[in-house]
Each structure stands twice: as structure tokens, then as C-alpha cells.
Amino acid sequence: MKLYLATPDPRELATAAARGLVDGVWLSPAMLIAASAGRTPDEVIGELSRAASRPVFTPLASVHDEDLLLEGRDRARIAEGIVVQVPCIEDALRAMHRLPLDGVRVAATLVVTPVQALVAARIGASAVCVDVELLEQHGVAADGLLRDIRTVLDRHALACDLVALHPRQSQQLARCAAAGVDAVVLEPAALRDALAHPLTDRGLDRLLGALSRRPRVIP
């Protein structure tokens, strides 16, 4: 399972990459706007692309076909690893289909049903993205939906990654992994929380205590 870090900060990205914990970068519209103070979004995306040497999933500033086509093509020229986010809505389907024909990788967002995932994968999306946090806020069991989408993609042999967005708790992350997702998008704080557990801390205390009682070897 791949791990995409949701951050516009090259330092956070470099730290995670040094630990082998990141396979790509995810930018939300809010992140890109905040990071673009005093510079252009293209400059932010270019800096992250150089820092990561990994895919950078970037939002676009429109939801309509023609604008998405123009902006998506422009964004793809920034760096080799750019993946543009296109919403899975009727007004954007032509762009979702045309951009891959032009060599631009597309991640379909706002996917909340297996049928939407099937359509997006069929017309050219290389990833379908399901917002776990949004679903569970509205009482939808995200892991059940992810399993259904996984089944549909596999049954129809569609080469498209299933990406779970923003599981906030370690239990959610575990359920996403068990559902068979290809990747998850985590913010740095959520990644740190996923690696922590009270029993791990207790085990560490025991280990440090045992090491402190180890006889010293005098050369």
C-alpha cells in the first residue's frame, strides 16, 4: 500500500522521505492556496516535485471541461510526476477522458459510489479517490464502500488505483488497508498518530530499563 503525504511543506516531505514513509504528495485546494502566498501555485508544485521526486497530486481551479483541459495540460508541464485531480461529475467527464489521451495522469475525486469509480476508471482515470473522513461524517461506512469499489475494479480488470483520503485514526487506516486500497493520503500529524500506541510506549520503557541494567563491558 502506497502512502501519499498531504502537505505543501518540503521539510515535512523530506523528513518522511528519509524514513521511507512517502510515495507521493497530495495537495488540497486549501493547502495550495495557503502555500501560494507570495508565489504562484506552479512554483509551489514545482518545488514539491523537485523535493519529492515522486508523484504530486495537484488540484485544479475549475470544475468545467474546457478549463480543466487547459489547466490540466499546463500543470502536467511543470514536472514529470504531476497527477491532476478532476472531480467525478458530469461536467468534468470529457476532461477526465481527454487528459489521459494527452499523456496527463488523472485522479478522480469526489467518488462516493462504485458506479462513479467504474466510470472514472473506464474513461481514463489512473486513480479513484474516496474521502474517508467525509463519508464517515455522514454516517457511511467507508471500509464497506472501499471493498465494493475494490471488487468492481478487480472484477472488470481496470488498471486504476483505489486511494483512501484522510483516514484520521489508526483504526480507520487499518480498515482501509484491510479493504484493499492501493494508497492512502495522510497528513503528517495523522501519520505520527498512526505510529504511536500506549503499549508501544510501555514496551519501549521496558526495553530502556533492561538496557540500563546491562553490565558494562570494560575494554
Helices and strands in order, then pairings?
Layout: E1 2-6, H1 10-18, E2 24-26, H2 29-35, H3 41-52, E3 56-58, H4 65-76, E4 82-87, H5 93-101, E5 105-109, H6 114-123, E6 127-131, H7 132-137, H8 142-155, E7 161-165, H9 170-178, E8 183-186, H10 188-195, H11 198-212
Helix pairs in contact: 1-3, 4-5, 6-8
Name the descriptors.
219 residues; alpha/beta; TIM Barrel; eight-stranded parallel barrel; globular
Question: What is this entry, summarized?
Answer:
The protein is α/β, with parallel strands linked by helices. It has helices at 10-18, 29-35, 41-52, 65-76, 93-101, 114-123, 132-137, 142-155, 170-178, 188-195, 198-212; strands at 2-6, 24-26, 56-58, 82-87, 105-109, 127-131, 161-165, 183-186.
